[in-house]
Amino acid sequence: xxxxxxxxxxxxxxxxxxxxxxxxxxLATFLNVLTSSIANVSLPAIAGDLGATPSQGTLVIxxxxxxxxxxMPLTGWLVQxxxxxxxxxxxxxxxxxxxxxxxxxxxxxxxxxxRILQGAVAGPLIPVSQTLLLASYPPAQAGIALAMWSMTxxxxxxxxxxxxxxxxxxxxxxxxxxxxxxxxxxxxxLAFSIYRTRETATRKMPVDAVGMGxxxxxxxxxxxxxxxxxxxxxxxxxxxxALAIVCVIAFVAFLIxxxxxxxxVVDLKLILERNFWTSTLALSVTYGIFFGNAVIIPLWLQQQxxxxxxxxxxxxxxxxxxxxxLMPFVGRSLQTVDPRYIATGSLLVFAVAFEMxxxxxxxxxLATLMAPSLVQGIAVAxxxxxxxxxxxxxxxxxxxxxxxSLSNFLRTCAGAFGTSITTTIWTDRGAMHHAQLAEQxxxxxxxxxxxxxxxGSAGFDADQSLAVVNRLADQQALTLSTVELNYxxxxxxxxxxxxxxxxxxxxxxxxxxMRPASAARPAAxx
Length: 526
Prior knowledge:
Layout (H helix, E strand, L loop, with lengths): L14 H24 L4 H7 L4 H4 L1 H13 L3 H8 L1 H21 L3 H15 L2 H12 L5 H29 L4 H4 L1 H16 L13 H21 L8 H23 L13 H31 L4 H8 L4 H13 L5 H19 L8 H16 L2 H9 L7 H39 L7 H12 L4 H34 L1 H6 L24
């Protein structure tokens, strides 16, 4: 049977079909982002209910991110093999099922296993929904379509912490997963009714099974090492040492295989493209810091300041407010403004927001705690669109899917790794500060004697008085650790400006930016 000619591109949707199609695809993105943000404020409740430490509870976050990152590079092959619409419907359906399984998980081990399943099927959701959305709009409206679609990533950070906090305080934490089921069902109903006749052509494609296997091994080993290291004193644990060895060997083998295979699961040669590696590095580091901070701030608020999950959600929720307002303008401005200027503004605002958090103390009121989240929303709105445009600029159309896949893979990995690294530094620095503060609490020191005497006169015995002082030391130690992390993050955002300005994106309007002669290519039709 001879190969069929490529099908003609689908005509754009119109009217109510376009509106409902955009809604369905946006809901899929909303589900993905909501699932990431809704669990952050619930970690103390999840860990406590399942008999785990808050540090172990972060596995609920990192396992999802790791699995999502690993499955992303397979999206291109899955689309070619099964079609965009089938893959989208399968991913949403399995996402809903795995959400229900997460809700009924009786222990942390099963919850993490179901979160890995959830992340694995979530990987294709964002790239496939993006592709279907662009095919639903006329090419001239692509920027507006992406801006509207991106607004869902701004709504979810508002709804996620608030909804997660309210559910945790008023129902129980499993409902943060059950809530995905009706949203997933609505998404599938809308998508099937609109896109069932718009399936893409399929064909059998070779799959890089070896490369995919090596990718799973080294990413999983690295993530497990980061998660277990903080619990087992790092390389004093034989398990962590073994994971490190496996990670290094698998990573080296992965590099060699992917650079020599004819059909690599990841096109590593993209790393040689200046625009790709500079913007992807800036985006990934920013995302890792952002995501790690979104985990430790709710932990600090609930464990040290006595906030409820709902109140912690209120502190984090404003991050999406300015994003909703500014995202459409950012999308339009790329037609006339160098994306590096917009990205620079984003990183500077990020630095300001984290410097504001570096001024936190245990007496900070709700308004003071919420203000940096509100400011940070400006930075988030100005970050993803310009850096993504730089990432893909200068690439031929046939390389864009691979570039988008690799960029999303690295960004998502950075989110998972950033969470583990941030929580590790936070607890380690907190322990160091606690030890330093504890040295000051001993007989003969006026401040310590006065504090213990005051507690004694209030009716506390010696052991109770020491327990109260120890609790206060914990509170101050982890607050100092939080402040240090935020200050260091602000400095890193400033340093990332170098990589943004090392890129050479095309000038607004399509004129290419100046590039070295060795990289120049003749313009078509000249």
